Structures are given as C-alpha cells and as structure tokens.
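#help-structures

NK: newbie question. if I give both the sequence and a SMILES, will the prediction place the ligand too? trying with 2-acetamido-2-deoxy-beta-D-glucopyranose
OV: yes, paste both and it writes out the complex. here, I ran yours:
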Amino acid sequence: MKTTAALLAGAAAVVAATAGGNCSKPYVTSEALQGLVRLEDLLAGSQTLQDIADAHGGNRAFGGGGHNATVDWLYDTLAATGYFDVVKQPFVELFSAGSATLSSSSSSSGEKVYTPKPLTYTPGTDGQTLSRPVVAVAELGCEAADFPAGVAGNIALVLRGDCNFAQKASLAKAAGAAAAIVYNNVPGGVAGTLGAASDAHAPIVGISQEEGESILSALASASPETPLVLDLFIESIVENRTNYNVIAETKQGDKDNVLVLGGHSDSVYEGPGINDDGSGSVGIWAVARALTGFRVKNAVRFAFWGAEEFGKLGSYYYVKQLNRTGETEIAKIRAYLNFDMIASPNYVYGIYDGDGSAFNFSGPAGSDQIERDFEDFFKANGLPSVPSVFSGRSDYAGFIENGIPSGGLFTGAEVPKTAEEARLFGGEAGAPLDANYHQAGDTVANLDHGAFLTNTKAIANSVAKYAMSWAGLPDVHLPQRRWSADRHRALHRSNARGLAGHGHAHAHSGPCGEVGGFDVREKVRERGGREGERKRVGGTIGKRVYIRFK
Ligand SMILES: *[C@@H]1O[C@H](CO)[C@@H](O)[C@H](O)[C@H]1NC(C)=O
Ligand SMILES: *[C@@H]1O[C@H](CO)[C@@H](O)[C@H](O)[C@H]1NC(C)=O
Ligand SMILES: *[C@@H]1O[C@H](CO)[C@@H](O)[C@H](O)[C@H]1NC(C)=O
Ligand SMILES: *[C@@H]1O[C@H](CO)[C@@H](O)[C@H](O)[C@H]1NC(C)=O
Ligand SMILES: *[C@@H]1O[C@H](CO)[C@@H](O)[C@H](O)[C@H]1NC(C)=O
Ligand SMILES: [Zn+2]
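OV: that's the protein plus ligand as structure tokens.
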C-alpha cells in the first residue's frame, strides 16, 4: 500500500510540475521565502482590513459588507498573481447579533445601570424600551409552577441553572412575561444561546450574579404599590446570511499530497478583528504572495475561512464538502496548519501542543512533527516558545477530527500573561495577552509588529519545508487516520467542559472566558443540535455591541 501510494504520488508530481509549473523559477527554500516576508506588507494588508471595517460599520463579521469586502480583496489579490487557482465557496448560515440596555430608575437607591447581554437568538423588544416591574421567579424557572402570576405583563427574573435558557425563555413567555432576565449562579456574566430562533421565547438577556443579587435585594424593599420598575431594551438581528470561504491552491505541485493552511477571514460583530484574525489571514496571504516566486513539489492550498466566530462554520463546511467524496479528498491532505491570532499585543510565541506533552491532547500522528518544526524555527532564531493547548478550538478542529496531522501558532487572547511568560517574552504579567480581544479596540494599533513578522516567517519556514518534502510526517494510512479521528471526536466530547482552566485555549473558540459558554455547548448538544457548528455562538454574540438607538 505505502509503496504504491508513494510511487503514484511521485508520478503525479512530475506531471504537475511540467503541466502547471514555471521551470524558470527556483524551488522554494525556507531562507528565500522568509526573505520575502516583509513587515511593510503585513502592515499594509492589516491597514486594508482596517479600512474595510471602517467603511462597513466597524466590523468584518460574517455575511456583512465588511466580510464581503475582505473576501473580495483576498480573492482578487490572489487571483491576480496567476499562480493560484482561487475559488470563493459560498455557504449559508444563521447570523445573530444584538445589543441591550437595562436600568432601574425607580429604585430608592437612585438610578442603577446594568450590563445585560442578549442571549443569542432572543427576540428583540420591537424597538421599544419596556418599563415594567420585575418579578422574581421561584426555584430555577424550569417548571411552569415556578412562575408566579405576577410575572404576567412584567419582567421575570430567573436564576441560571438546571434547565437550558430556551426552556426558561419559553416558560416565561407562556406565563405571560413581557421579557426575562437570567442572572448567573456563579460570579461573572452570562452569555448563552437559545439554540434557535422561536416565537415561543420571551425576549431574554443575561446579567451577572452580582447584578442579579442587587436586583433581588432591591426587590425585598419593593411592594405592589411601589414596585421595582426596570427599563429593558433589546435589539436583535437574526437572519440567514450567505458567506464565503476563499481557497487558493498553487497551480503547480503534487495535487495528491497537499499542504493546507488557513486562518479566518471574519471578525466578531463587535470590532474590526485586526489581530483576530486579520493577523493570521494577512500572514498566510503574505506567504502565499511570496510563494509565487518559486516552484513547489507539493501543492499548497491557502484557506481563508468564513464565519469562524460563529463556531468554525466555514472550515467545518469545507471539510464536510470534501468528506462527501468519501475519503479521497481528505486523504490528499498531508498536513493542516492553522493561524488564528499571531500578533497579540502582549504576545507569547504559542505553538499548538501537537505531541500532547503539555496539555495531554495530542493531535493526529504527525502533529508532533509539525510542532517540532515550529519549535526548531524559534530555537534557531534564539526565541522562546510555549505550547498552546490543542484540543480542537479553532479551525483546525475539522481537520484533526478527520485524522489529519495539524499544527499552528497562537499568540494569545484574553487570558492574563503569567509571570513565567513575562519572564520569557517580556510584556506585562497579569495583563491579558490581547486586552482588545473581540472588542472595538482590535485595530491596527493592536498588533505587536515583531511577533507578527516573526510568526509570518515561521509560517514561511513550514510552508517551504512541506512544499518540498513530507520528511518526518507519516504516510497517509487510512485505518490509522480513522482511529485518530474517532479518538478526537470522543475527546472533543469528553473535554467540552474541562478546558476553562487551561492557559492558552483560543478562548473565543470556547466560552470567551465567561462562565456559560461550556454550558451553552452542553445545551446545544442536549438539543441534538449541530454541536460542532453552534457551540461558540453563546460565547461570542451580544457580548459587547455598541449600537446607538433612540
Ligand atoms: C515564469 O516565471 C518568470 C520569472 O518569475 C515570469 O517572468 C514568467 O511570467 C513566469 N511564467 C509563467 C507562465 O508563469
Ligand atoms: C454580502 O454578500 C452576500 C452574498 O453575496 C449578499 O447576500 C449580501 O447582501 C452582501 N452584504 C452586503 C452588506 O453587501
Ligand atoms: C434560514 O434558512 C433555513 C433553511 O433554509 C430556514 O429553515 C430558516 O427558516 C431560515 N431562517 C431565517 C431566520 O430566515
Ligand atoms: C467524514 O466522514 C466520516 C465517514 O466517512 C465520518 O466518520 C466523519 O465524521 C466525517 N467528518 C466530518 C468532519 O464531517
Ligand atoms: C491523558 O489522557 C488520557 C486519555 O485521554 C488519559 O487516559 C490519561 O489519564 C491522561 N493523563 C493525564 C496525566 O492527565
Ligand atoms: Zn480567531
């Protein structure tokens, strides 16, 4: 089997090089490719994305004008090289975003302003501010009997826990509540999803435990004559949106043994996403353009995933489409490299822990080699690096769930820098690795230029290596890949809860550091929902949206 595959692969390489290649170009080398990676190109690309966001309401979120323009820019600039076959791959997914305000003006202690987060897929309040008494619900609001008659026409205050948010929202509506507020059962805010849009749900927001308890204590001194009145406004967008992956593959090289690398082209709704993941997109875009000066032995496919911020939708869609051909197309992918945030302002040089040495989630066979190759790059440049947890929390998930060796780089999100990391990398211990993570402040000013340049050279180094040779990476062995795929799907399920404490999870692929995200994921699974596709929704939407309204 192995010998035949290798022979066939060799034959294909020869055909590809003569058919699509340019024999006057030299074969790529790491040094030459790295030499073409220039900070000014990275910054110019980042500025282009910033300009696009600025021209489209401050974001590049999926299905919106800012993302469309990002997709067009990637497509146009890569197609113009003539070196790649470039496609835009469309797919449709449900978009949801919203904003909310909540305050009490009638409380004896004066006006108090809360920080509500609309639950994903909540109905809005029809452009009105509801001014209604708030009524506490008994128990956890998981049974109709928990809702007192007084909630009819008013705002129900419900404690988080036991049943999912959709059930609380439905029971509130059934009891006649005009809206519902769910407050956390542990410190911190609640971000969650109703799992789907439905007319059966009352409009619903989440608030922190502290805010919930402060409303409860104010309620203690309220009476039917002097109720505690809250002002609640929810704006909600729920709509199907067409979105695109951009895939650019070298015309030359062995198409049966392909290196795939990717980053996501969308931002959150809350900001322009220049580090997350403008940095990864621009990094691989720059390497793609640099590669056009060379010949390659193996085909290299650059992927720009859409709708990552909604649960890795673009990469999952892509893998699913490939998967529909059976194992043929998947088996052509020899390795996958992922770059999601590579220029964080208070960065670490994080490398996905492919060998499982640090976090006990090893990738498919070969992921250890990919990690080692990145480690060697940093060592050779006299730079430190740290392992980054590798458990399926960015666009590489669909690849490791198909047994494809994977790896990548990650400079960190909202997690604070440890003292040890500050010793290794400089920067500020105790401060987030990216203080502007998923916020309006993730602009061109939010990039560490040195980290951006170094990481992009690291990408170039790995691309040059695998474009020429698979030495050190295993041959494609389908039974082994299937075994590995099963294991990753199982791990993925069993670890859905346990990761919050790990330092370098790409947090926006989880709960955004908020209690609630994992719970959301469990609930989606309970619903029998498309777990892989929806799990991040609750963590990212409605978190910080600044929409002005009157
Ligand atoms: C081949 O490469 C040379 C040098 O980079 C370039 O001038 C020429 O246009 C290329 N030809 C094709 C067919 O790509
Ligand atoms: C973005 O592109 C999609 C698909 O082509 C289109 O339906 C949508 O209207 C575009 N949005 C904007 C704001 O241009
Ligand atoms: C989105 O599209 C799906 C599938 O076509 C459809 O069932 C659903 O009603 C649509 N949702 C909205 C909000 O338009
Ligand atoms: C790909 O297909 C296999 C069966 O052929 C299935 O077990 C696996 O879950 C699929 N993976 C994805 C990501 O769709
Ligand atoms: C590592 O993971 C394996 C399988 O998931 C488990 O059996 C083992 O106990 C774990 N080891 C540690 C040190 O956590
Ligand atoms: Zn990201």
